[in-house]
């Protein structure tokens, strides 16, 4: 066997090592040859497809249409929006030669598509009747990474990027929040990630945005993961790309634009929100296999294998994603460990004696209830509910963990202690210099100003100046 | 109005101009800024999504799994297979700078992924139990185009590429044919394109393949469009990338690999197979809108608009993709022309008098049956069947066109005449020099040796030498 049969490093011992081992050993990912690139293996890609299909359905249901824009963008496009080029320049991959010749103008591999989509919007929009223009693209993007981490920071990743143009600020801001809500729901209801929605401070804004909103998740090491962002661009890109419309009054005006994205980074978020020392724990609604059946066939029992396949078919007909592990060369014990490590929510063990009794042994991934004998005939009826409960349990557990690792702090010592294990809710003066100072000392950054935070004011936890934003800010170390 | 209200150039007048006008005017595509790139607009992308979902379902149903491999490939990878690098070198886009620095080794933007997937297969396969390895990827690829044509030849296009590894030649060849059959069915049953399946002659093989199979479609100007290809690679890539397995006997052996792809080129194929002088004609099974309802609301009749929306909902519930054109600023006549140009199979006109009579006026895209009054209440029941008939009619019409433009020829004069308007079925000696000669004189190339051709032999239609292949070859000018 090529597989390493040992387990993974304990989370408490070395969380980073645990993460790296588990994403590789579980067959989610492999390293690509070019710096920081990744191969998403079938087991990881299936999870992405399930997530993608849910996001895509929600994007379409809210009136957006998919389109596809070119990968290669003239270098000069990026320079048209000054903050945008400054933000992305260090991360660009640049095509200088093509078709056997040096190009007159170099092309960048898209790090994001505001510029090229802005150029097309300018062409397609002429009247207020063309607005809102609600576009979305599923695509790969490239941002050169010096310190890559699989799924979290990779040179190439997959995402959707919504790009919309609107008649005024009000409509564009509504869209920005609609996308943020969509991400919030996807994270909570599908990934069982209890994210906090909020606005980024000016220092953490997207390059070129007037306002950036985010959903922030807490990983099991207490760090934050920015899991989706939605930007109100004001008229910045409309000015740079000349996106104008003739209003009802006949006057020409600039559009207000937005953009918003969610990426394969979510896979890393799911791993680090729910995983434990045995490996992955996948939320049922996104698990590639919700149930794995392990037939116990000492010496090869055709009856047991057949019963396993029949049960699988009945479960699939009941809408349960079911896999039968029929690998002849492996022991049941090996398979139990393997599927635990790979995060399958429910395991069903089926041996000759179970078959005689008309039952299967059910084991939930968290293992806290031991093995239960369940009547085979009842499984198609009861499993969907058991999976729903498992999904709810994961969300509740992650919410509890997040709340236990989030502290309201008013002194610097409390702040430093809080961000060493989780998040601090603190008053802050809002100046970039003070943010930088905090980061230098604690590695913590402002994650967001929570939308649902209570109004309050006082002295900055670091410098003592008057607080900004009218509410507390979440600080934490982040991925 | 920004839209140009004039029609399109007649096909008979200038087919290339017709094509170019129609793909832009119908809103399928726009030009990207970098040479030969395209923007796939929502109306074109929706068709691609429908095709994609059908292909993806069939790929999964035959046991393949999706994965994702990096866009950027070290330049040296391509050189490992000598024919492969020779075939693709002239078309490569090369990243020489990234992250603000010159790279030690340049990266090519994938023109296809045999090399990088070969490298990973070598890592993942160790035993015969790992075979067959059946992978598929949905991705963008870049091949620098000097003479781009939207959808047909563009610098960047979207496709799926299947890559599989097998225990022996027999199994790999079965896979090659399985993929070819899948493409054949997709083209025939969804795109209503009566393609011919066959093998490419050695001069037309994929760079690095032992055998290349293709489906060839005939466009309405008589030219051929290669619409999907499936390659048996022998052990060429397995040798180059060291893809080996230990057999049951314990001996180490090379895998036999395949690859196969279908792309956004199919959109161009659909346009040129079914379109006419009024514009596009979409086969119902892939049409973004199968039915468009045009409410006739002189002075704005709320009742008519409401009835149109209600009818649309009932049709959607019956599985019919239905669009209501409620644009207030346009006349019904403009909308009729617009949707005819955009290829919608069925138009329903609904005015106040129709509503009173409980009917809608139905007009089929080909317009050959005029307008028919149909009871509104019957539409959800009868329309699916009408769309099926329309689909079948398009396939029958295209088959008739293809057969009328394909001639069995035995003399050079007949050959030259046949390839000026369509395809020639001719005996050929099989030498590349003679193929080149034919191409130089007539612009025709061997499209394929049809799988279903009758056995025959004789003198080469061009040089008189003994014929090869044991059957006639299809020659034609091609896109």
UniProtKB/TrEMBL annotation, chains A, B:
One of its GO terms (molecular function) is ATP binding. One of its GO terms (cellular component) is cytoplasm. Keywords: Aminoacyl-tRNA synthetase, ATP-binding, Cytoplasm, Ligase, Nucleotide-binding, Protein biosynthesis. It is found in: Cytoplasm. It comes from the Bacteria. InterPro entries: aa-tRNA-synt_IIb, aa-tRNA-synth_II, aa-tRNA-synth_II/BPL/LPL, Anticodon-bd, Anticodon-bd_dom_sf, Pro-tRNA-ligase_IIa, Pro-tRNA-ligase_IIa_arc-type, Pro-tRNA_ligase_II_C. GO terms for biological process: prolyl-tRNA aminoacylation. Pfam families: HGTP_anticodon, ProRS-C_1, tRNA-synt_2b. Residues 36-283 form the Aminoacyl-transfer RNA synthetases class-II family profile domain. It catalyses: tRNA(Pro) + L-proline + ATP = L-prolyl-tRNA(Pro) + AMP + diphosphate. Its EC number is 6.1.1.15. Its main location: cytoplasm. Catalyzes the attachment of proline to tRNA(Pro) in a two-step reaction: proline is first activated by ATP to form Pro-AMP and then transferred to the acceptor end of tRNA(Pro). Homodimer. Belongs to the class-II aminoacyl-tRNA synthetase family. ProS type 3 subfamily. HAMAP family: Pro_tRNA_synth_type3. Consists of three domains: the N-terminal catalytic domain, the anticodon-binding domain and the C-terminal extension. This is Proline--tRNA ligase. It comes from Nocardia pseudobrasiliensis.
């Amino acid at each position: 066997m090529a597989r390493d049969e040992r387990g993974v490093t304990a989370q408490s011992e070395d969380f980073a090592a645990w993460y790296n081992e588990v994403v590789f050993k579980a067959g989610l990912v492999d390293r690509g040859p070019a710096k920081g690139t990744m191969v998403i293996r079938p087991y990881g890609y299936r999870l992405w497809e399930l997530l993608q299909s849910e996001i895509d359905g929600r994007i379409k249901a809210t009136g957006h249409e998919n389109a596809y824009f070119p990968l290669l963008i003239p270098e000069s496009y990026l320079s048209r929006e000054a903050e945008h080029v400054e933000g992305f320049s260090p991360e660009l991959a640049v095509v200088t030669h093509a078709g056997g010749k040096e190009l007159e103008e170099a092309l960048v591999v898209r790090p994001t598509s505001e510029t090229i989509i802005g150029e097309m919007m300018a062409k397609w929009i002429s009247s207020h009747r063309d607005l809102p223009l609600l576009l979305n693209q599923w695509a790969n993007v490239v941002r050169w990474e010096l310190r890559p981490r699989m799924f979290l920071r990779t040179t190439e990743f997959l995402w959707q990027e919504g790009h919309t143009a609107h008649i005024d600020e009000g409509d564009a801001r509504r869209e920005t929040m609609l996308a943020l809500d969509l991400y919030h729901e996807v994270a909570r209801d599908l990934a069982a990630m209890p994210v906090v929605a909020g606005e980024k401070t000016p220092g953490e804004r997207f390059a070129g945005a007037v306002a950036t909103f985010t959903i922030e998740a807490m990983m099991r090491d207490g760090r934050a993961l920015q899991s989706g962002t939605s930007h109100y661009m004001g008229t910045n890109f409309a000015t740079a790309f000349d996106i104008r419309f003739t209003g009802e009054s006949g006057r020409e005006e600039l559009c207000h634009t937005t953009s918003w994205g969610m990426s394969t980074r979510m896979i890393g978020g799911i791993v680090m929100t729910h995983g434990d020392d045995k490996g992955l724990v996948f939320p049922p609604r996104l698990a590639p296999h919700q149930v794995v059946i392990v037939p116990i066939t000492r010496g090869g029992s055709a009856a047991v294998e057949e019963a396993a396949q029949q049960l699988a078919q009945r479960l699939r007909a009941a809408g349960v994603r079911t896999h039968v592990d029929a690998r002849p060369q492996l022991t049941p014990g090996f398979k139990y460990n393997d599927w635990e490590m790979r995060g399958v929510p429910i395991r069903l063990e089926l041996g000759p004696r179970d078959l005689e009794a008309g039952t299967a042994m059910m084991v939930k991934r968290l293992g806290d209830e031991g093995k239960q004998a369940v009547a085979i005939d009842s499984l198609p009826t009861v499993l969907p509910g058991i999976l729903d409960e498992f999904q709810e349990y994961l969300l509740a557990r992650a919410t509890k963990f997040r709340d236990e690792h989030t502290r309201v702090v008013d002194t610097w010592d409390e702040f430093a202690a809080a961000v060493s294990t989780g998040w601090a809710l603190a008053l802050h003066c809002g100046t970039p210099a003070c943010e930088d100072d905090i980061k230098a000392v604690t590695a913590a950054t402002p994650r967001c100003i929570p939308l649902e935070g209570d109004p309050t004011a006082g002295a900055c936890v670091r410098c003592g100046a008057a607080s900004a934003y009218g509410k507390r800010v979440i600080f934490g170390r982040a991925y």
